Amino acid sequence: MYRLSRLKYVFPLGLFVCLFLDGSLSHVWAPLFFRYPYSMASELVILWLVLSYFFEDGIEIPLIPFAIAAGVVADVYISGILGLYMVLFPCIVALTRMLAHYFTPSFLTNIMIFFVDLVVFATVNYWAYSLIGVTSVGFGDYLAFSLAPTLALNLVYFVVLYWPIRSLYSWATTEKTM
Predict the structure, then answer these.
(1) Is residue 166 part of a domain?
(2) What residue numbers bound the domain in which 75 lies?
(3) 36 is a domain residue
(4) I need a surface site. Which of 79, 116, 129, 160 has the fewest CB within 10 A?
């Protein structure tokens, strides 16, 4: 069914735009996003993947392969460590699927699941970077100065973009009438 819907164009285009915007917003707003001692990371790709799961409306988007592809691009372009995002993005999609089975879909449950996804993603990312010696920030400082601002920024993204993305998916999943 995915092949026959508008989602075959909307989803990959939105994913590419989110990949582009994550890097661009971090560059353009660097003085705001990375003001000592705080740092916040824009995670629009995770937002797109999570909301895509919630809004696919019976049309099964191949989220895992797209998440792997987005992870490879993010690894090459953003992090420089091949394999981190390539593994984390599909894991976040799987976590979203697992958590969504336990809750009735609504705005509040969706934002709660997105919150959990962000915490898991950012924390595993932190642990991986501290394991290989890229960062030496203590866990308490990470929670206060990196995770909290990242959560705040991305929850604002969620609240602002939830209904426009929902409308886009509603349009993309309706059948074409000619």
Answers:
(1) yes
(2) 2-31+43-173
(3) no
(4) 160
Backbone angles phi, psi at 101, to 5 degrees: -70, -20
Please check whether residue 38 lies inside any domain of the structure. Answer: no
Under the phi-then-psi rule, with left for phi > 0, alpha for psi from -120 to 50, and beta for the rest, what region is 83? left
- Return the number of other C-beta atoms located less than 10 Å from residue 152's C-beta: 12
Residue 109 lies in a domain: yes
pLDDT (tens, 9 = 90+) of the chain, 178 residues, equals 555 568 888 999 999 999 999 888 888 888 888 888 889 999 999 999 999 999 987 778 899 999 999 999 999 887 777 888 999 999 999 999 999 999 998 999 999 999 999 999 999 999 998 998 888 889 999 999 999 999 999 999 999 999 999 999 998 888 764 4
SS3 of 106, please? coil
Q: Is the pTM of this model over 0.85?
A: yes
